[in-house]
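ok trying again, last paste got cut off:
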Amino acid sequence: MSKRTAKQERAERTRIEILQAAIELFARRGILATTMNELAKAIKMTPGALYWHFPTKEDLLLAAMEELHRRFIGEFTEVLTEGRKWPARKQLRVVVERQKNFFRYHPTHGIFFAMLSCETPFNSPRICEALRETLMLYVAFVEGIVKYGQKRGEFRPDVDANAFSHAMLSSHLGLIVHQQLFSDALGYEKICDALDVPVTSGFESPPDLKAAG
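nice, full thing came through this time. structure:
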């Protein structure tokens, strides 16, 4: 391995470490309340070194969103490939289950996106637009499954596919924040099932509509 390659790999590892620390700190303290100097102190790095990797706080937030998108979308590789051949009902249930598992093991990831959703619309147009573009990828993904299921008669035709997809995404982001508040009395799995089971079951077409389709 050349010295240049080794240096590049070290820089990339440092970059990922910064992003992970930033995601966790922003999730705990909020986006606006956390400064770059505080982040540098938390990861035992000089502010100058941090700014070398990310010249502005917005650059850091954009990179954190991209990193989380990369991790999150990896959970759905199967559905995006061979899963396209599955019935829509199975696709939707797998998406819901994978999303639940991801946030179960990485709660700060969901809280980070929830914080961005709350704080950026009135404070950072650039971050807000990037966040909308990222979240719309998931909305479009679920919307496509829903429309496919409606066309096949698997899902109720009287539900707006786009609105449903937004509702599912926003519900899970809000759920992860709410569960942290009531963590002593309410388990993550329990609150997820309380939402996901009736929603996915209630969204399926009644037997008479399935037969007609």
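cool. The chain has eleven helices and no strands. The domain at 60-212 is CATH 1.10.357.10 (Tetracycline Repressor; domain 2).
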